[in-house]
Amino acid sequence: MKILVCITHVPDTTSKINFKDNNTKFDPTGVQFIIGPYDDYALARAIEIKEATPGTTVTVLNVGLADTEPTIRKALAIGADDAIRVNADPADSFFVATQIAEHAKTANYDLILMGRESIDYNSGVVHSIVGEMLGIPSVSPVMKLDIEGTKAKLAREIEGGKESLEVNLPFVAGCQEPIAEWKIPNMRGIMSARTKPLKVVEAKAVDSGYKIQKFELPPPKGAVKMIPADNVAQLVTLLKTEAKVL
Amino acid sequence: MAILVFVESAEGKIKATSIEAVAYAYQLGDAVTAIALGDVEKSELEGLGKYGAKKVLHAADAKLNQPVIQAYTNVLIKAMEDEAADILVLANSSLGTPVAAKVAVKTGASLASNVVSLPDKSAGFAVKKSIYTGKAFAWVELTNPKKVIAIRKNAVDIKEVSGNAAVTPYTVQLSDSDFAVKTLSTEKATGEILLPEANIVVSGGRGMKGPEHWSILEDLAKALNAATGCSKPVSDMGWRPHHEHVGQTGVKVAPQLYIAVGISGAIQHLAGVNSSKCIVVINKDPEAPFFKAADYGIVGDAFEIIPKLTEAIKAVK
Ligand SMILES: Cc1cc2nc3c(=O)[nH]c(=O)nc-3n(C[C@H](O)[C@H](O)[C@H](O)COP(=O)(O)OP(=O)(O)OC[C@H]3O[C@@H](n4cnc5c(N)ncnc54)[C@H](O)[C@@H]3O)c2cc1C
């Protein structure tokens, strides 16, 4: 079986977000980058399938500039066999999805996994666009994925519950917990990742019809009003008359 | 400018988030047609006129009673064509977002999800979307003639206008390939208010000490007509179902009121709630980081405060 896992290179979840150049660019100063947490679930499930199914290969793909290579190496250390970096700034969902589809259309993957969304732009659409471009089904957010021959059984989270689904391979899945437990690379993985193949390819030009004009931070939160524990009635009054939310 | 709005339903009723989508479309341009799929009550469809829909297409084919993403996508593409719609508006959801993406690919439309406000048309057509899990926003220009916009809850104030919408049956052609993803079964909480749609959320953390103590939060939620949520460790430990987990890796909520009980306020939890209009934090530790993100706070033991709060709410209702 051939599995492709698409990963993002995103600010650590504890990062403070700032912009520069008159709010037109993300400011990476002091920010630590990680594999997107949802992508990390996808990767972990891919490695589990590989371990359970002899002959399986896992390729990771990232659309990013050279600074994403440590993140890609981490995915190799976790257990992927080889990697592809599409050398471009991941400008928007349509652009990224086009690059993934472009690579996948001739590579015959049985399974294309990624996170349900990236934690920078949160659009949550790349898996659906890739599926549509390749003409294969896409399902997200997937919280359970079991391969049964040429089919897969999936659980997809919906508002207030979940659906159990069945789909033939190949397909695209946007993953989330509890599909697998995050994997931490061990020393052997880190050593072997250094020599695993990482191929750099150039991007295909795309007009996405999507242009970021500027970024904005939310207004700072006002000071919290503390209410004594023995006076919950005061809280109710404030919620009614001041915050007007009751 | 003709606008099509995809409205979602559950148990025959239009979802609150879809009513917002209709209101959004009406404030964007007045030629609004809504489309509903599967089994929906007629009065619900007519009632969309109150939010600005002139016409409602109803594709009542029983095969569409279950929300099947590919089938819904193809129906919407056809309806956009039939209505000569340039814009499709829908709610960001487990159904709406993938459908939006697929329709955009097929129709060559510019796509924006997680949109939080009406477009700014002063220079092009720009929408504001939530990014970095609620920590920032981006203004994005949608440059293609066709546009697909998936809106987040509270993107617009709902204004009521008068009139019923004319409901027209809409016949669809479905093919087997629309059902390539087979739905085997659906498990869904019924009768309770769903977290992503709730105006008020009561959420519990590890400070609740165990699933057996959730009844006091449920009582409070009931008094407030609220949904219940939880922190990640709570769902990881199986105290609560996964779909109640709020935060960076769970559900992102934007209610009028979020009440956090026994939750420390880790940055990953805050990421899922920072778009709430008003946040109340109840925690026994005065140093809990959540207080910094709150509008109102009470330092104290949840097990004493929550039942009293429930009584106080009941007293004013
Ligand atoms: C990549 C990543 C993603 C994550 N995503 C999420 C996410 O989506 N959502 C999420 O919630 N977390 C997420 N986390 C975990 C997050 O970092 C915190 O660990 C988690 O939110 C803590 O949950 P908690 O507040 O319930 O528990 P704790 O941090 O243990 O806090 C319990 C709180 O209860 C208070 N308390 C105890 N007893 C009482 C009492 N009797 N009365 C009142 N208060 C009491 C304590 O003072 C304490 O503040 C993520 C972490 C990582 C690394």
Automatic annotation (TrEMBL), chain A:
<protein>
    <recommendedName>
        <fullName>Electron transfer flavoprotein subunit beta</fullName>
    </recommendedName>
</protein>
<dbReference type="InterPro" id="IPR012255">
    <property type="entry name" value="ETF_b"/>
</dbReference>
<keyword id="KW-0813">Transport</keyword>
<comment type="similarity">
    <text>Belongs to the ETF beta-subunit/FixA family.</text>
</comment>
<keyword id="KW-0249">Electron transport</keyword>
<feature type="domain" description="Electron transfer flavoprotein alpha/beta-subunit N-terminal">
    <location>
        <begin position="23"/>
        <end position="210"/>
    </location>
</feature>
<dbReference type="Pfam" id="PF01012">
    <property type="entry name" value="ETF"/>
</dbReference>
<dbReference type="InterPro" id="IPR014729">
    <property type="entry name" value="Rossmann-like_a/b/a_fold"/>
</dbReference>
<dbReference type="InterPro" id="IPR014730">
    <property type="entry name" value="ETF_a/b_N"/>
</dbReference>
<dbReference type="InterPro" id="IPR033948">
    <property type="entry name" value="ETF_beta_N"/>
</dbReference>
TrEMBL record, chain B:
<dbReference type="InterPro" id="IPR014731">
    <property type="entry name" value="ETF_asu_C"/>
</dbReference>
<dbReference type="InterPro" id="IPR001308">
    <property type="entry name" value="ETF_a/FixB"/>
</dbReference>
<comment type="similarity">
    <text>Belongs to the ETF alpha-subunit/FixB family.</text>
</comment>
<protein>
    <submittedName>
        <fullName>Electron transfer flavoprotein subunit alpha/FixB family protein</fullName>
    </submittedName>
</protein>
<keyword id="KW-0249">Electron transport</keyword>
<keyword id="KW-0813">Transport</keyword>
<dbReference type="Pfam" id="PF01012">
    <property type="entry name" value="ETF"/>
</dbReference>
<dbReference type="InterPro" id="IPR029035">
    <property type="entry name" value="DHS-like_NAD/FAD-binding_dom"/>
</dbReference>
<dbReference type="Pfam" id="PF00766">
    <property type="entry name" value="ETF_alpha"/>
</dbReference>
<feature type="domain" description="Electron transfer flavoprotein alpha/beta-subunit N-terminal">
    <location>
        <begin position="3"/>
        <end position="193"/>
    </location>
</feature>
<dbReference type="InterPro" id="IPR014730">
    <property type="entry name" value="ETF_a/b_N"/>
</dbReference>
<dbReference type="InterPro" id="IPR014729">
    <property type="entry name" value="Rossmann-like_a/b/a_fold"/>
</dbReference>
